[in-house]
Amino acid sequence: MYTNEEALQVFMQNKNLVHYILKIKYNQYQFDEDMIQEGMIGLWKACQTFDEDKGYKFATYAAICIVNEIRMAYRKVKKHSIHTISLEDPVPDQEDLTFADTIEDPLGSVEDSGVFFNVFYETLSDNEKKVIELKLYGYRQEDAARMMGITQGGFSRIKNRILDKYMGRRKHENQKPVQRKDNDMGSV
After folding, report:
1. Do the beta carbons of residue 73 and residue 34 sit within 8 Å?
2. Inter-axis angle of helices 33-49 and 4-13, to 10 degrees?
3. For position 71, which CATH number holds?
4. Could you tell me if 57 and 25 lie in one domain?
């Protein structure tokens, strides 16, 4: 354990470690002052709790503390600020275009795609809606899964389930009912 003066000196010497970790682990984000602040808090905690007798290097211990602090702050923010969008919301930087307008149905005409999707969207679970919203906002699968608190595999399964539902429902709408003949027993 460092004294307060030693901890302050170690903190000042290792401030660049926070920026390095943000660049390496969180490069895909446009990290802002909040992430830097959380990283600095983690570095300060590392300075206050580091024990040389355990045999670890300070940078190794500090990196773990920094990452943990950023993750905890991110979870708090995620828990309290779930942002939902509507398909009727405008697409960023496109004044006259809504999210519903951007969805094209591969099995039908563009004109009825938005109407179909709006009806389809209402049948989805909250998790399925969240997957669509995060993808519409352009999040990568890894980032979106992390935001939802699930694995990438779980995110992928939800995405595939949505696609299966969508394609199955759309095919069902486009097919005419098949009349079976009484003597049609199928091949045995």
Report:
1. yes
2. 140
3. 1.20.120.1810
4. yes
Residues 1 and 53 sit within 8 Å (Cβ to Cβ) = no
- Cα separation, 169 vs 121, in Å, equals 12
Residue 180 sits at the vertex; the CA angle it makes with 177 and 185, to the nearest 5 degrees, is 140
Q: Distance (Å, rounded) from C-alpha 33 to C-alpha 27?
A: 14
Q: Is 98 helix (H, G, I), strand (E, B) or coil?
A: strand
- My answer on whether 145 and 105 are in the same domain is yes
DSSP summary character for residue 90: B
* CB-based contacts of 123-129 (< 8 A; 24+ apart in sequence): 123/165, 123/169, 124/162, 124/165, 127/158, 128/158, 128/161, 128/162, 128/165, 129/84
Name the burial class of residue 37, with classes exposed (0-12), middle (13-18) and buried (19+) by CB atoms within 10 angstroms of its CB.
middle
DSSP-based helix, strand, coil % in the chain, nearest 5: 65, 0, 35
Segments forming the whole domain that contains residue 104: 100-174
Helices (H) and strands (E) in the chain, counts: 8, 0
pLDDT tens digit sequence for 33-75 = 888 899 999 999 999 898 888 888 999 999 999 999 988 887 7
CA distance 150 to 148: 6
Encode pLDDT of 156-185 as tens digits: 999 889 888 877 765 555 554 444 444 444
